[in-house]
Recover the amino acids of this structure.
């Protein structure tokens, strides 16, 4: 099923309606859809490098809007929609224990999930269900998704198709390592 979704997403990149498709994919990925918008964004930017930052901006706006839907699902529809989505992604069992500490570090969690391969929809739903401050959620979402999409756009704009393999296979790992190093730095400073 995921392979078919992936192939379908790649075909959308060639469509004359690709920007609308990107907006749709970025929107639903932040609340329920399993395929990240990067899969559509990358071939679009390679085909139209002059529109790299417009494409990233559309992905950012739609992703944050989708994140707001995810927040609402967690806040108002958790039992009917949120819990089944978390169960689908295998996160329901850890929800109760995680939600107790979540709001203390919520902004950091949204930032980390927004730039790493962690399913962002889990965090958007969790943020709403735990009542994370909406302003904190919104700012952290904009920063995280902006960093992710505009960095991908900048790399593709600057280096073109040769960087595609790196982005598709290793950028998530690089973001994750950056977050680990940043967290270790904060932890070290805390104990100095």
């Amino acid at each position: 099923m995921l392979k078919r979704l992936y192939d379908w997403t790649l075909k959308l990149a060639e469509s004359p309606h690709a920007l609308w498709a990107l907006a749709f994919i970025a929107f639903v990925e932040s609340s329920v859809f399993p395929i990240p918008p990067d899969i559509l964004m990358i071939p679009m930017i390679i085909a139209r490098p002059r529109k790299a930052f417009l494409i990233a901006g559309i992905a950012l706006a739609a992703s944050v809007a989708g994140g707001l839907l995810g927040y609402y699902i967690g806040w108002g529809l958790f039992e009917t929609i949120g819990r089944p989505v978390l169960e689908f992604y295998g996160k329901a069992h850890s929800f109760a224990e995680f939600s107790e500490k979540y709001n203390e570090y919520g902004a950091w969690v949204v930032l980390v999930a927004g730039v790493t391969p962690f399913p962002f929809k889990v965090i958007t739903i969790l943020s709403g269900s735990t009542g994370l401050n909406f302003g904190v959620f919104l700012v952290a979402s904009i920063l995280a998704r902006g960093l992710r999409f505009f960095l991908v756009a900048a790399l593709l704009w600057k280096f073109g198709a040769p960087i595609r393999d790196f982005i598709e296979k290793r950028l998530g790992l690089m973001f994750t390592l950056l977050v680990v190093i940043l967290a270790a730095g904060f932890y070290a400073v805390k104990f100095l």
